[in-house]
Amino acid sequence: MASPSVTRWGSDGDPVALLPGFGSTVAADFGFLGPMLGRSQRVIGVDALDVGAPGQDVLSRGERPLHLVGYGAGAALALRLASGTATVSAATVTLIAPVLSPSTPDIPFLSAPFRALRPEAQEPVIDRARAAAELAALNGVDLLARAASITAPMLVIRCADDALAAPDDALRLVDAAPDARLASVESGHGVFVERPAEVLALLTRFLTDPHAHPAGTSYRAAAA
Predict the structure, then answer these.
(1) Are 72 and 24 in contact (CB under 8 A)?
(2) Hey, CA dihedral for 186, 111, 24, 39, is it positive or negative?
(3) Closest Cα to residue 146, out of 212, 64, 87?
(4) Which of 4-8, 112-116, 215-219 is least confident?
(5) Inter-residue contact 75 to 98 (CB < 8 Å)
(6) Is-contact 30 18, C-beta < 8 A?
(7) Residues 224, 201: contact at Cβ < 8 Å?
(8) Cβ neighbours around 129 below 10 Å, total
(9) CB–CB of 65/17 below 8 Å?
């Protein structure tokens, strides 16, 4: 397998790894978030990374623990990386719009309220075949067990109108992990189209002070 494509922003600060969503890429998902975080952090975006595959050393290289940020399929990957025995050392873990159970990508990623407000908005362009394979490979029991083994501070960002995730997927992850908190954003699964600034605010606050909101608490994006 070829090494994954890597995108970098910034050169200083603690390293942040961005893992894209179902059938997507770093450029598509993190085109706003990556450069903004790169103002104060060293950011590494990695496309289509498989645990144990060539290219994983991109993340395991270096002395500092990583802040893992995974969206959709990337959230499942972040859990596998952070809970593995020979993968990466996680400083924090952020799961954005996590999904625990197999589903289909042939549903709107954008929420109905957003589409009514912005009828010109386009659905995110993804590789539907790859997205379907990534969704089919999900194992909620395994992911919950991995979450339970992660002691690093965790932030789970729930998208309130996410049609891809079951309503309690994010809650189950927060309940399973020993040091997790839940933040909610009013959006569909396509949160980087609908609410990119809110995700940036939530993530920036968490990276600056992971325990600003104690483990087990729940809050809205406006309270970041």
Answers:
(1) yes
(2) negative
(3) 87
(4) 4-8
(5) yes
(6) yes
(7) yes
(8) 10
(9) no
Cα dihedral sign, 47-34-56-182: negative
Q: Determine the length of the chain.
A: 224
Tokens for 202?
């939530």
Structure token pair of residue 115: 């589409």
Tell me the pLDDT tens digit for each residue of 84-123: 765 678 999 999 999 999 999 999 999 999 999 999 999 9
42 and 16 in contact (C-beta within 8 Å)? yes
Lowest mean pLDDT: which of 60-64, 87-91, 198-202, 210-214?
A: 60-64
- Categorise residue 152: left if φ over 0, alpha if ψ from -120 to 50, beta otherwise: beta
3-state secondary structure of 175: helix
pLDDT digits over 31-60, tens only? 999 999 999 999 999 997 664 444 456 676
pLDDT-derived band at 69 (thresholds 50, 70, 90) equals: very high
**37 φ, ψ (degrees, to nearest 5):** -65, -35
